[in-house]
Specification:
There is one protein chain. The strands form three sheets. Strands 1, 2, 3, 7, 8 and 9 form a six-stranded mixed sheet that branches. The chain has a single domain, classed as OB fold (Dihydrolipoamide Acetyltransferase, E2P). The chain is globular, with a radius of gyration of 21 Å. The chain is of the alpha+beta class. The termini are far apart. It contains six helices and ten strands, in the order H-E-E-E-E-E-E-H-E-E-E-H-E-H-H-H.
Length: 167
């Protein structure tokens, strides 16, 4: 009986230790948002696949949209909305096998089971990028467009066009 109590205490102690190490590991996730479609999680840069957000900084420039003839840094707005959405939540990402031409991982990231890509597109802070999405986010984009959400309330250039014109 004495050995069984010792074994039980040992198992409980190890289980408790593993729980707290795992819990702290999840809560201590190092997350940095570089753009409305790119984040860094624990040092790994991840580009959200199939969407494109206005540029907060590209070749020394910030993408500008127009709202009632007023210049708006829409890339900054997109980045800020992603920061607000993530908050202090843990981020889980499903990564694709291949990386992009800039050596970033490509994937779809989630907080509490909700896709950040869907959130960004559906609220008008990013766009479905048909070249890569195969229309995966097109219904979310239609919703944002029909409701004049985010950049759909402004005049803007598609981010891929803006980048091509600002190389």
């Amino acid at each position: 009986m004495f050995l069984n109590k010792r074994k039980a205490i040992l198992v409980i102690s190890i289980s408790t230790l593993v729980f707290f190490l795992t819990y702290n590991d999840v809560k201590s996730q190092d997350i940095k948002i570089s753009d409305g479609d790119t984040i860094k999680v624990n040092g790994e840069k991840i580009r959200f696949g199939g969407i494109d957000a206005p540029e907060s900084y590209f070749n020394g420039k910030k993408q500008i949209c127009k709202l009632e003839e007023k210049n708006i840094f829409c890339g900054e707005i997109s980045k800020t909305k992603l920061i607000e959405k993530i908050g202090n939540n843990s981020v889980d990402c499903v990564l694709e096998k291949n990386k992009d031409k800039y050596k970033r991982s490509i994937g779809e990231c989630f907080i509490n089971g909700e896709s950040l890509s869907v959130y960004m597109v559906r609220n008008g802070y990013a766009l479905d990028w048909p070249r890569y999405s195969k229309g995966k986010f097109s219904k979310d984009q239609e919703f944002a467009k029909n409701n004049n959400l985010g950049i759909w309330a402004m005049k803007f250039e598609y981010p891929w066009v803006w980048r091509a014109n600002n190389r």
